[in-house]
Design a protein that fits this description.
Length: 163
């Protein structure tokens, strides 16, 4: 095999690996969003998507928040679907090799990415909701960001092990 052929093969393998790893990250973003929506919005009922500007204390405001939560879940579904398709596309190639720890790293990294982006934009910049409103809202918001940052670091480390 020529050097050029080997490079093409290595380039193809790298592209396949990037595809499935990107898919894993997007899947992690979607799953992190679903965890947030299911656990924090629905089970614990700490907040809804727009509960700061529209406190869910009236039926009209609850309807607005329910719509916001539904749109939020729809976006999570899109991330999960795109992640699954990219992941599958990258893995079905014959040259793809991967480790379970790397896959878990992509999921953890994606979830951490979700927490950091959502925590910075929705909680801090836009202020449309906080993790848990009340006297210690800032502590909950900062804990959420710290949890996301730790997941980013752990996920990144696991993903780097593949290289």
């Amino acid at each position: 095999m020529s050097v050029r052929g080997a490079r093409g093969s290595l380039g193809q393998r790298a592209a396949e690996q990037r595809r499935w790893m990107t898919g894993g990250v997007l899947l992690g973003v979607g799953l992190g969003g679903f965890f947030d929506g299911i656990v924090l919005h629905q089970i614990l009922q700490w907040h809804h998507m727009v509960s700061e500007p529209y406190p869910p204390e009236t039926l009209q405001n609850l309807r607005i928040n329910t719509l916001g939560d539904g749109l939020f879940h729809s976006l999570n579904w899109v991330f999960t679907l795109l992640g699954t398709l990219l992941f599958w596309s990258g893995l079905r190639a014959s040259h793809t090799t991967w480790r379970t720890s790397t896959f878990l790293g992509t999921l953890i990294f994606g979830w951490g990415l979700f927490n950091v982006v959502e925590g910075l934009i929705d909680h801090q910049i836009l202020g449309i909701h906080h993790v848990r409103p009340g006297p210690y809202w800032l502590a909950y918001d900062l804990g959420y960001l710290a949890w996301g940052a730790v997941m980013l670091l752990i996920g990144w480390r696991l993903m780097r092990a593949a290289r």
